[in-house]
Amino acid sequence: MPKKLKIVSISSELDPFSKTGGLADVARSLPKSLRRLGHDVIVISPFYTKILDRKKHKLERIYSDVNIYIDKENEVKVSYYRGELMPGLPAYFIRADKFFGRRASLYGSGHENQRFYLFDVAALKLISLLKFKADIIHCHDWQSGLIPYLQKHRFKKSQTLQKAATVFTIHNLVFQLGQNWWEIPVKYRDKGRSSLPLFDDKKLEYINFAKRAILRADVINAVSETYAEEIIRRDYGQDLYRILTNRKHKLFGVVNGIDYKDFNPQNDKKIYKNYDHKKVLRKKLNKKFIQKLFKLPVRDDVPVICMTSRVTYQKGFELILRIIKPLMQFDLQFIVIGSGDKNIIKDLNKVQKKYPDKFVIIPSHEKNQKYETQIYAGSDLILLPSHHEPCGINQLKGFRYGCVPVVRSTGGLNDTVTNFDPIANTGNGFTFKNYSSKDLLVAITRALETYKYKNIWRALVCRGMKASVSWELPAQKYVQLYNKAKRFRRDEKNNLG
Hints:
By secondary structure, this protein is of the alpha/beta class. It has helices at 22-36, 97-100, 112-130, 147-152, 209-216, 225-230, 241-246, 283-293, 317-322, 324-327, 342-354, 371-378, 394-400, 411-416, 437-451, 454-466, 472-496; strands spanning 6-10, 40-46, 60-71, 74-86, 89-95, 136-140, 165-170, 219-222, 251-253, 304-308, 333-337, 359-362, 381-384, 404-408, 430-432.
């Protein structure tokens, strides 16, 4: 029987306590899957005072006013709270209201690096306080990127921490520190090997957390196999492709999954009518429901396309806006739910005003998040024309709810969606390769033409619904990565010794 591992998962957001996107989903679902495999897991995240509902989530304060010594000149008092992700899986939260309690959003301050520097030190301190002798410290994205550095320097003599191997997961390499890395003047860019500036030094905001994690983590992984291959190329590597190439022997890819207990059309209480692949005709009732909900004409014969994502350049909205005129000539309905770039949203609102019977955009604030699975259940197609997409989980949710994906073949989309071939009767969606509005329009047109053939379309829908996209297999792959990280850690110590 494989050895049970002691695992710490550290992330800046954690569904259902805090969330902006897919990171929160992974931070929730992967630890739960690891726990179901029998491993001893704890998770750590910030306590966002204006977002996190202490009473709702039954959080208990376990340590008060703990002094966190950041450096020789700076210390901050924090408190620690405990809740649960599931029975047997504790979730811990670090509270420091000056840093995580002044905003009604998770990110966007002018001192992001300072906030998450504190978080990283306080997370390591908590592991020590709990005397949790971890085998693995799993750091998600740049916000926890200083932890491999701190563990090997400031905490290297800790009896609790010194044996832990570190895994750094790149969810999106565009994000490397608290500001856009490309906006930092070249002369100020962090080379990743110097000591850290003092906590109150403005130079701290130039420190590249992701780079330091890549240089020091025992294992680095990206959230899909294709993305792991892409980021060692100049065009995808976001100025870090050289160091990633140098550490290619420690770079792996594991595609994300979704939690079947959270996303299940058979028992999802948020959707109008429950169904599965055997009762897929019930989707029609959900389509009717969302058409009424969003004031679209109630028609069973019209295909409904949805997008549920951040409204950004990365997600391919510029391509959609380029083809909106010919797209609106088709007999279809289009639902967008998301927030992000104000200029793009302004343009999408203009489209809605011009085509009120065909196009709807819904802001994705917390009150509207309940619509997500309702939209999957009622839509026929989900569109993901991303410029780059490390993994993406919305196409996986689409499969689960019988919503056929139309995607650009990049990152995790390439790993999970295969192009439909009507002659061979293979594939589970519609794909295009080049980041081009013309190629996107061709892919959508193929999907709409296929939709006309009801038996073929139903078989395509059922194929996606029956596919395995849960966290079960990815969690097992992560366990393999953790064991590799332990071996790398052990070999490094032996070489040094």
